[in-house]
Design a protein that fits this description.
Elements (H helix, E strand, L loop, with lengths): L2 H8 L9 H18 L6 H8 L3 H7 L3 H10 L13 H17 L3 H12 L3 H24 L12 H17 L7 H15 L4
Helix pairs in contact: 2-3, 2-5, 5-7, 5-8, 6-7, 6-9, 6-10, 7-8, 8-9
């Protein structure tokens, strides 16, 4: 019996459906490796060994390293990042401030930068990042759409495109290591975007 078969027997899966205990062990192992050694030392082999899970199990649920990195990264984020207080200016200012603060803390920014870097030369990583970003645009876009009617934002405005504009600013700050931002500066960024889409049509 080879090592992968032995490891798989220690922590069984249930076909394509994820076993919650195995999933938690894998994500916890991934988070520990990232915290201890950073993204440069991250590998499916290292995660499998620490989680006592077979590599085939990991690859069945996460088709590549980038997908597992993104899942590990995302579970560290503030679940209340997309709060809806009824004031879009305030909510998006909070989102931007908290996102950059999250990237400053605990190596999360380095993890996301490493995925972006890998996506430049690896098609699988590019696809994983694209799928993740599409889901993030959907969530932030839904938040914008919820306030579209009551905040004089025309129906022709695409909320997902607005979300991408805001995320684009955040990405530039991440990739140039300028993550310090206060509420006043974040508010000016958001106001510039919202002023451009209000009262159109």
């Amino acid at each position: 019996m080879n090592d992968d078969q032995d490891l798989t027997k220690r922590r069984t899966s249930i076909g394509a459906q994820r076993n919650p205990a195995s999933q938690e062990a894998i994500l916890q192992a991934a988070a520990e490796i990232l915290a201890e050694h950073g993204p440069k030392s991250f590998s499916i082999e290292a995660v499998a060994k620490r989680a006592k899970a077979g590599k085939p199990t990991i690859y069945r649920w996460w088709p590549n390293k980038a997908a597992l990195l993104l899942d590990t990264y995302h579970r560290q984020k503030n679940p209340h990042l997309h709060a809806d207080s009824g004031d879009l200016q305030r909510d998006l200012t909070w989102f931007l401030t908290e996102l950059l603060a999250f990237w400053r803390r605990g190596g999360s920014g380095a993890i996301f930068r490493s995925v972006i870097a890998e996506a430049q030369t690896d098609q699988a990583a590019c696809e994983a990042l694209g799928a993740y970003l599409a889901e993030r645009r959907k969530h932030l876009g839904a938040q914008i759409r919820a306030t579209q009617a009551r905040e004089n934002i025309g129906a022709e405005v695409n909320p997902e495109l607005v979300a991408e504009m805001l995320s684009g600013f955040a990405w530039i700050r991440l990739l140039t290591n300028r993550l310090e931002i206060d509420e006043e500066e974040a508010g000016k960024v958001v106001k510039t975007i919202l002023d451009g889409i209000r009262g159109r049509g």
